[in-house]
Prior knowledge:
This protein is mainly alpha-helical. The protein has one domain (5-166). 76% of the residues lie in helices and 0% in strands. It has helices spanning 5-32, 36-47, 52-72, 76-95, 108-123, 130-134, 140-162, 167-175. Helix 1 (5-32) packs across helix 2 (36-47). 38% of the residues are buried.
Amino acid sequence: MLCGVYDINLGLLILRLVTGLTIFLHGYNHFFGGGRLPGAGRWFDSLGIRPGILHAWVTALVETGAGLMMAIGLLTPLAGAGIVGIMAVALIVVEARNGFFIVKDGCEYVLFIAVVCAAIGATGPGEWSVDNAIGFSVTGWAGIALSFGLGVVAAVGLLAAFWRPPNGVRSAWKKS
Length: 176
């Protein structure tokens, strides 16, 4: 039995809400939880992404903004690009050298989130979205190009400009 339009829109709404709110809460936590922005800044510095406090601010703003945009379906491919960019940086700098599984600090989580955002970019946010209400529609290959392609290009550009891995990180990559 084929899914009806109602089923597809419900599924896209659930994906957008869970993905967007998860990323939003992660960014919110940078602002108000744990070590807050100064702690996140020190962590970025320790990874060789400098200046760390700048990247803590940018990351928290992108995560909260893109997370909310994804949740409500506003400029969805651009929201996806923000999330994919953050996930790509995390994958390259932290998780990929640890393998796939998250229980070993691997890339499973960030890869999954990035692929979900690219898939939403391909399908569009569905009828139950702000994009639909304002008549904004970029889907298919253009949606993937924006959500996944722009996110990866932004991540690579950021890393080329700001990432200078400390010796411990370089040697960890060589072991992989």
